[in-house]
Amino acid sequence: MSGTLADEIRSRLGELSPAERKVARVLLAGYPAAVFETVATIAERAAVSTPTVLRCASRLGYRSFPDLQAALRAELDARNASPITLYESTGMSPGEQATAAVQGGGETPADRQLTTLQQALSQTFKETSPHEFDNAVDLLSDARRRVHLVGGRFTHLLAQYFGLHLMQFRDQVSFLPDRDVERASFLAQFARRDVTVVFDYRRYEEDKTIIAELARERGGKVIVFTDPWLSPAAAHADVVLISRVASSSPYDSLTPTLALMESLIAAVLNRLGPDAHQRMKEAESIAQRVGLV
Fold it and tell me: If one looks up domain 5-79 in CATH, what number appears?
């Protein structure tokens, strides 16, 4: 399965009987916790018989309902993986892997990483929904909306990279402040015409989910960049942009995310057209006047 169990269920809804679809919707509505309920409880919530729940699992490609639950446990383990657990799961250190490759006349570490990244990039763009991408372009090119960028431990760098490009050709782009008082004030100003862009990859950060939830409560729109296991913040998003993170090291690669971001930047710039060009010229003129370039 290339995506999450939830993705698999959604993709196969059309193959299910009406009663089995009721089961699937119960599982999706409470995902992932609902999958770990008893068969009897799920049947009751879906208003179907217990054999229908079992047939639904079978139709989804699992020998039994416990097998479906086991698949979700494996997914959650992967979702919460850290660089340490990924490092330990390889059975040898990256240095030992490199030595083995050279001694065996196989691919070099650079060759292996290139192959992995090429596959991850290809999958990311193939799996990106044109509808989701276009919705993101619509939101980010709406000059009436303020855009807020929020990142995490490492992904704050992506948020800054994305935002610094946006603010060159559109107004009202800002970053979540670092200091507590400023951050609280910033979040208190979320409004209906705002777009909050959240970057959240495994291991997910709870405050990113709360920020996405707060933005939605205030009537704003939320765009979430995340990995195939889906940040919990995605539950509050209007647009979810998923990137593959495969790497030949214990660290997830954010290269596909960067490529997707740059494609989005180009699309927004194109959508804004002459207005963006004029904004860039004005910014360049001011930068030259004050000696910033």
Answer: 1.10.10.10
